[in-house]
Amino acid sequence: MTAPFPNDFLWGAATSAYQIEGFPLADGAGPSIWHRFAHTPGRVAGNDTGDLACDHYHRWRDDVALMAELGLNAYRFSLAWGRVLPEGRGAINRRGLDFYERLVDALLEHGIRPMATLYHWDLPVALHERGGWLNPDSPRWFADYAETVFRALGDRVPFWITINEPWVVTAPGYLDGQLAPGHRDLFEPPRVAHHLLLAHAEAVAAYRTLGRHRIGPAVNLEPQHPASSSPADLEASRRRDAFINRWFLDALMFGRYPEELADIFGPAWPEFSAESLAKIRCPGDFIGVNYYSRGLVRAAPEAPPLNAIRITPTDAELTAMDWEVYPEGLTETLLWLRDRYANPPLYITENGAAFDDPPPRDGLVEDPRRVAYLRTHIQAAATALEQGVDLRGYCVWSLLDNFEWAEGYSKRFGLYQVDPGDRTRRPKASARFYREVIRSQGAAALPASAPPTAGCAADAAHRDATAAPASRAD
User: Fold this and answer.
1) What phi and psi values does residue 402 have, to the nearest 5 degrees?
2) What pLDDT score does 474 carry?
3) Catalytic residue among 147, 202, 260, 350
4) How far apart are CA 35 and CA 51, in angstroms?
5) Is 332 annotated as catalytic?
6) What is the distance between the alpha carbons of residues 330 and 290, in angstroms, rounded to a whole number?
7) pLDDT tens for residues 126-167?
8) Sheet holding 295-299, edge to edge
9) Is the alpha carbon torsion for 197, 199, 205, 209 positive or negative?
10) Which residues neighbour 449 within 8 Å (Cβ) at sequence distance 6 or greater?
11) Binding site annotation covers 121?
């Protein structure tokens, strides 16, 4: 395999505001649902909070310097809604917005293209107390916030992501109660999901008026494989595919929801108007893909409403999250997007692994398992490119070890270790590896037998010539 990555391919790393910034109430910012959730005893491992996180709020200049040393040409970050609008609406907090203006300017000075996420799960508490994403007015709230940010940063940010992983906002947030706001109510997720999709559509419409570059969603995807050939497991994997993969993408691309959802939710599934379904058919300019593993699915009548559970294979390598290392699933996911949705432009907006890293030696953290994970997944992306997928970028999750939501600081995904005491950043071997991948335009990740190339083998003309022509709307 020769390196198929084109010269304009984006090589980035990703973070989110609450996970790295720290000081979430500084300089007039308003609290988010994650600030409240993390401060509720028993919600987060070790009762950790994002109060300090990586202290990126004060150390952002040093972090941009790390990005430049890596050779990144893109950086995906999120804006904390409550930093910009402490009440979620109304008066702008100039000091909070200035923080993001300085960050964007520094990135551009180092030749790093900003990829800004508007919403990475941190809804302002003031809006949550008005119903949050259950409130039919929430799409308008989001659009007003988006317009504020577009006016301030739209001339300098070439890539915008509206909402990160709306499925995670919906299911763990409102059905399972594992993540903020911690609700457990079968009737809430369908309404939340619909409002998130309407919010995305309204933000895209606002950007069409105010923006000049590209905007799209970021969705978490994982192929769903039956644990056996039994009809029950096959049907369970299809339900879980509809629940995780097709719920939001079919809405965005086709303006409809998978039929399985009405069966899954039963009487909790509402009727949606034709007008609102037409409005949520709004894919934007690209799809961001967050991929970590596959789902191995077993039928489970004891686990409503899905009646299916994801099981952990006993014969596979697992990350510290107990997720199977399954790089071929990334290729499968990208090819599925090509075939089902007519080969849309794609960016891998998150891909990485948590492992229990050893202490540093001579200033370097050796993390060979993460290096292997990144290597095989970049190879998987290369395979998809060679098969005509319109893939335009890859972002490692994450630049830094950070606050990993309900896992607190117990799970480490970063290319750089962050000392829990003084917040010193220490490079891992994976950072050194990724720097070489970027320098070689992907060739350093390919098998040793592959001749190293600068990576023009899959330019846009080649991708257009080999792309799959039609979507499969089954």
Assistant:
1) -150, -170
2) 28
3) 350
4) 8
5) no
6) 10
7) 999 999 999 999 999 999 999 999 999 999 999 999 999 999
8) 224-226, 295-299, 308-311
9) negative
10) none
11) no
Query: Model-level pTM?
Result: 0.94
260 is known as an active-site residue: no
What span, in angstroms and rounded, lies between the C-alpha atoms of 452 and 430?
20
Q: Which domains does the chain have, with CATH numbers?
A: 10-466 (3.20.20.80)
What residue has token string 């299911």?
Answer: 171
**56 annotated among ligand-binding-site residues:** no
Catalytic residue (one of 21, 147, 165, 188): 165
Task: State the Cα–Cα distance between residues 165 and 234, nearest whole angstrom.
Answer: 25
Maximum pairwise Cα distance, the chain: 62
Radius of gyration of the chain (CA): 21
Gap between the Cα atoms of 56 and 218, Å rounded: 23
Taking only the tens place, the pLDDT of each residue in 240-272 is: 999 999 999 999 999 999 999 999 999 999 999
d(CA 250, CA 245): 9
State the pairing for strand pair 159-164/214-220.
Answer: parallel
The C-alpha atoms of residue 144 and residue 81 are separated, in whole angstroms, by 11
- The residues facing 416 across adjacent strands are 400, 427
Q: What is the rounded CA–CA span in Å between residue 399 and residue 77?
A: 10
| Side-chain-facing half-sphere of 99: CA atoms under 13 Å | 26
Determine if residue 292 is labeled as part of a ligand binding site: yes
Chain centroid to Cα 300, Å, comes to 28
In the chain, helix, strand, coil percent, each to 5? Answer: 45, 15, 40
The answer to the question of whether 213 is labelled as a binding residue is: no
Angle between helices 138-153 and 94-109 (to 10 degrees): 50
Q: Would you state the structure tokens that stand for residue 115, as one six-digit string?
A: 């990829």
